[in-house]
Write a structure and sequence with these properties.
Length: about 425
């Protein structure tokens, strides 16, 4: 009697679903089954009838769904691949087993493969069509959910976890487009915004830093004096972009070489270190370079006038000496401007001798270059000087006699 035996590869039972989609599911209920059939110990060839049924137990139990029969199915070298669709509501999440039976095509009786084959994870992907709970983002392939899969208004602020959307999740220009669509505009890097409140928590929480307070009327605001530097005059002050730095001066009885940094946004003072600072003085000058304050010149009763100075870094709270090699002669009551790369000092007085010369200090090379005296204004002190972008303009001043009111421009050389 001819005996037909069936051997099915266990690995083949982990079947893959077809990718056909339905309105409410990720895949259809059909899956692909691959097997290996032997006849009398050798790989089978020919035509066979195959029968498949899904059960809820490894033996006995109740059948789930319909019986699938593939008649006259061709088998070559023992291998076959068939599509099995037991119908809806079969793979609900409970354990399932596949009963496989086979017979030569046209024979009367099917022979069951024992034991039934456990239906493993792959077919259960069908349950994704009925998931109602939350899905971890790590379980969703990148790019699989686009705007076409989302109903209008389906995702609102209440569905988005705080801080879950960062710049990496936004297309270029998306944020600006959304702001413009709602009648708002973006704030460029380095930009400033105005708030009706000087304690706006929403702006602070968004990362904005308060740099000051302004009013719509012509008025003064009382600012803190604790712990500000001691009172003084004939000192200097520069603005860094976030702080005012005051330094040096005379308090009525003593010359000073200390100072303080005032932050108008926080309304606080921070002391300026005196370690490595220039000696005490007043009637000096100070400029801000963008990263440091340069102090130069000045005078005291004893020893008199100075032609040295210092460079103060508020970021490090440290001083670095300004070279005196090639520097202008010692003086006070002069002027200084910052060009963007150099500090230009000019004029002033030194022990009753008025000056009409000056120098250009380059902090990058820590060097001085003399300023020409050709066609320079006459000697003077207490004058003013500004930088226009390409030249220094000097005006007014005093030389011990009548006040000067002539205006002269000195081009940068």
């Amino acid at each position: 009697m001819k005996h037909t035996s069936i051997l099915l590869s266990l690995a083949a039972v982990v079947c893959s679903l077809f990718t056909a989609t339905h309105c409410a599911r990720a895949q259809s209920t059909a899956f692909t089954y691959q097997g290996f059939l032997t006849s009398q110990g050798a790989p089978a060839n020919g035509s066979f009838d195959l029968q498949f049924a899904v059960f809820d137990a490894v033996s006995g139990g109740a059948q789930q769904g319909v019986t699938v029969v593939s008649n006259s199915f061709g088998v070559t070298n023992g291998l076959f691949t068939v599509t099995v669709d037991p119908g809806a509501n079969v793979f609900t999440g409970a354990a399932r087993w596949l009963n496989v039976a086979v017979r030569p095509a046209g024979s009367a009786t099917f022979t069951n493969v024992v034991p039934r084959q456990s239906v493993t994870a792959a077919p259960y992907a069908i349950t994704a069509g009925t998931v109602t709970g939350p899905i971890n983002g790590a379980s969703i392939a990148a790019g699989t959910v686009t705007s076409t899969q989302l109903a209008a208004g389906a995702v609102t602020a209440a569905n988005i976890a705080s801080n879950s959307i960062t710049a990496n999740q936004l297309a270029a220009g998306a944020a600006v487009s959304n702001l413009n669509a709602s009648g708002q505009t973006g704030v460029a890097s380095g930009g400033m915004i105005l708030s009706a409140s000087d304690t706006n928590a929403a702006l602070a929480n968004a990362g904005y830093v308060k740099i000051g307070v302004t009013t719509t009327s012509d008025s003064w605001l009382q600012r803190t004096t604790v712990p500000s530097p001691v009172s003084r005059y004939s000192h200097t002050a520069v603005w860094t972009g976030g702080e005012v730095i005051v330094w040096g001066g005379f308090n009525g009885s003593a010359y000073l070489n200390d100072g303080g940094r005032y932050n108008p946004a926080a309304d606080t003072w921070t002391p300026v270190t005196t370690v490595g600072a220039p000696s005490v003085r007043d009637s000096h000058t100070a400029v801000w370079t963008g990263s440091e304050m340069i102090v130069w010149g000045g005078e005291t009763n004893t020893p008199g006038v100075f032609n040295d100075g210092g460079r103060y870094s508020p970021a490090a709270d440290t001083w670095t000496a300004v070279t005196t090699n090639g520097a202008p002669s010692a003086r006070g009551s002069h002027t200084a401007v910052w060009t963007g790369i150099e500090m230009i000092v000019w004029g002033g007085i030194s022990n009753a001798t008025y000056s009409t010369d000056g120098g250009r200090f380059n902090p990058a090379s820590n060097s001085w270059t003399a300023v020409s005296t050709t066609n320079a204004p006459s000697v003077r002190r207490f004058h003013t000087a500004v930088w226009t972008g390409n030249e220094m303009v000097v005006w007014g001043g005093n030389h011990g006699g009548p006040n000067n009111n002539n205006s002269t421009t000195v081009g940068r050389r």
